[in-house]
Amino acid sequence: MWSVELVGRTSDLADFTRRFPEEPAKVVANGDKFFLKGKLFEGLMGHEDVRRVAEERLNLMCAAIKLECAGLSLRPSAGAIYRIDDSSARHAFAPGLNLTVRTRLEVRAFADVSKRPTATQKRVEAAMRNESLRTAMILWADGNRTWPRLYRILEEIEHALGRRMVHKAGLTSKAQLERFKQSSGSPEVAGADSRHGPKGCAPPKNPMSIKEAEAFIASLLDRVLLMTRDPQHDS
Q: Would you call 28 helix, strand, or coil by DSSP?
């Protein structure tokens, strides 16, 4: 069984235990430390692969939290990695460290059982089932939300919808979509980040600010994640 210690602010990590209490990737507390564990690590043989998978999942977890609120101060990172084998030996892996001790790592969850899985977890699992949504979430987690980056997220969303435009999927109105597109393509609105040059799009009558555009793309991404169902639960 693999466990990855999470490094970050205690208040942020405590929030992770509430938002991610269930498989396949859950955050649990052990004293004043926090660990990422679960079925997502099953079948992995080496600690390098475990670290890679943990960092990828943390990106999606942070993106999901940032869709719900702006309260995440710093992105947690993967610290020491532990594996407990069948003989209860605990193996620790960290840069410059590889040791085995005879002890059992006991971790306990902090969560309301009646709320599993949480909405945050549903967002992450939806992204895991679709490559375009996964890419959109990774881009969202980055925090570098320029006009070209926001437009790229829109394209990933539409690709996830089977190349349907978002207004045809009922996620927004055609007028709002055009307002975003014209704003992103107009040098008068987007400045140096405009998707087009001086002869690009004319600005709309009511241009979006970059903050409005960010909120617009966030709403689209959030809606498409929550409408993406798990095939196991489809009728």
A: strand
Do 84 and 27 have their domain in common? yes
Of 66, 86, 115, which one is at a domain's C-terminal end? 115
Domain range for 78 is: 2-115
137 Cβ contact list (under 8 Å, min separation 6): 59, 60, 63, 64, 123, 124, 127, 221, 225
State the residue for tokens 């992204």: 127
Report pTM: 0.82
Cβ contact 70:211 at 8 Å: no
Of the candidates 142, 154, 164, 162, which has an alpha carbon nearest to the alpha carbon of residue 184?
Answer: 154
pLDDT digits (tens, 9 = 90+) for 39-89: 999 999 899 999 999 999 999 999 999 888 765 667 899 999 998 877 767
d(CA 60, CA 134): 7
Q: Rounded to whole angstroms, how far apart are CA atoms 141 and 123?
A: 13
